[in-house]
Amino acid sequence: AHFAPDHFKVVDDGSRIVATVALSLDDARPNVCWLKRLYLDPSLRGTGEGTRLLQWVIDTSQALGRSRIELWSDVRFKRAHAFYRKHGFHHEGVVRTMTDGWAPYDEFFFYRNLDSSN
Predict the structure, then answer these.
(1) Other residues' Cβ atoms within 10 Å of the Cβ of residue 92
(2) What is the DSSP letter of 45?
(3) Partner residues linked to 86 by β-bridges
């Protein structure tokens, strides 16, 4: 219920959810979409499924007239950071500390500007 129905994608293997991705619009900045909830079951990592889901976010963002995608990622997820960089996202050292869980954690900020060649 947190995301618009056409802004959330779920992949299942017939018996369980194995991947998710979502995007949300930034109402204060009409050119920005936020990438949210990109998760892959470990068995899918490295298979191209993440790239397919990310492309869905890019295509959807562009169809909505957005020209930038932003996201926050837990600093511990090194493989995810490499994935984002491989797909044109930039991290320039911005970090935030979150306190919404049982213990504080830090997140890196990533962004990707979209244009007609992406």
Answers:
(1) 8
(2) T
(3) none
Are the CB atoms for 7 and 60 separated by under 8 Å?
A: yes
Query: Model pTM?
Result: 0.91
Angle made by CA atoms 105, 106, 112, in degrees to the nearest 5: 140
What does the pLDDT read at residue 4?
82
Residue owning tokens 């490499």 = 82
Alpha carbon of 8 to those of 54, 64, 78, 79, 105: distances in Å?
12, 14, 24, 23, 25
> How does pLDDT run across 51-82, given as a tens digit for each residue?
999 999 999 999 999 999 999 999 999 999 99
Enter the DSSP assignment of 87.
T
Q: What is the CA radius of gyration of the chain?
A: 14
Please give the helix or strand (H or E) that residue 53 lies within, else none: helix 49-63
**9 CB-near residues (< 8 Å, 6+ apart):** 20, 21, 22, 53, 56
